[in-house]
Amino acid sequence: MQTISMIVQNRRWFNYLVLSAALLATGCAGEHVAAKDLGADIDEVAATLIEQPLLHSTSIGVVYRGKEFIRHRGDMEAGKPSPPTDATLYEIGSLSKTLAGTLMAKAVLEHRLDLDDDVRIYLPGDYPNLQYKGDPIRIRHLLSHTSGLPNMLPDRANTVLEDFTDQRTPHELNAIYARYTKADFFRDLHAVKIRQAPGKNYAYSSTGTELAAHILEAVYKRDYESLLRGFFQDSAAISGLRIRLNEAEATRLAVGYHSDNAVPTTPMPQLPWGASGNVKATAPEMVKYLKFQLAGGPVVTESHHALVEFDSEFSIGYFWNIVSGDHLKGVYYAHHGGVPRSQSYIYIMPKYDLGIFVITNQSGDQTARAMETAINTLVERIAARENAAR
């Protein structure tokens, strides 16, 4: 859902983006391939990260030139010995969108659909409103956040999110989505007004991602969660991705805190498809996702293809933010995720064959900035190490 990204967005285009690594002194997940110096850097960066106000814990996965690191640090519940582990399920928020983009790239390569398809051909009923002066919303517009669709449906959720850090926000979101179904989504979609030609201006839209999930269901004749789990099991050996949890899985869901509330808050409410912000995963599963992204391959390459260029430094692919012109990082692909009790980042940096996933179990207006600082520090140290080795 990336609620927080709406606060830290816009021309930082991606300075918002819109988190790098950690070693636990008591219960680390383990270093799959030894790299002592980088492990020490990860440890130091993570320790500094959770010293920031309100941050309780972090889990971090790093893949660097084929070496894997998973680290957990801190306690998920304030005042209790409760470190996260490899079994902890996290709400990864709008990182979910990059998974949906990957499935869309697969569908394009398989000629199940075309990027220039009018989205209305996949919808039940007539939607004369999903166009502007004859220009329809196309699939590429959903993927690049240029459709003109609102961030959330129903519209009253957008009003709630205008003051994300208000302690009432999680409760109000829960009330809005308690019984919000796919039928409700389509009803509200009929009332949307497109006020400018699609494809021109960036306007972040979780609605667009939910609609993309419906389109995938329509072309594959399978429910979205089944598509998600099946593809990533087969292509990346990721077996534990979940949108909806059973009772046993729910006991492994990370505790989390919203803004400055000292009381743990409830999970992100279920959206109709869940593609925009409801995926849950463990740190080891996210490391496999980093490896999948770094390995390339036709689907990943297609998903990293820029669909719209906003300026010389910022483009969007299949929900991926693409940043150019950064001398340190090179061209990189990234996304932020935020729900009321968790924030996360994913960075894919081909220049260093480096992928970073970091998540905290607190979501406030300074969380993203703290994670960005941690990632920048880690990348600087990796760059310095590589320069020294030349």
Automatic annotation (TrEMBL):
What is any Pfam family matched here?
A: Beta-lactamase
Listed EC numbers:
3.5.2.6
Example of a GO cellular component annotation carried by this entry: outer membrane-bounded periplasmic space
State the protein's name.
Answer: Beta-lactamase
**PROSITE patterns from the xrefs?**
BETA_LACTAMASE_C
Q: Which GO terms describe its biological process?
A: antibiotic catabolic process; response to antibiotic
Give one GO molecular function term: beta-lactamase activity
Domain called Beta-lactamase-related: residue spans: 55-374
- What are the alphabetically sorted keywords of the record? Antibiotic resistance, Hydrolase
What organism does the record attribute this protein to?
A: Sphingopyxis indica
User: Catalytic activity, per the record?
Assistant: a beta-lactam + H2O = a substituted beta-amino acid
Give the record's family classification.
Belongs to the class-C beta-lactamase family.
Question: What are the boundaries of the signal sequence?
Answer: none
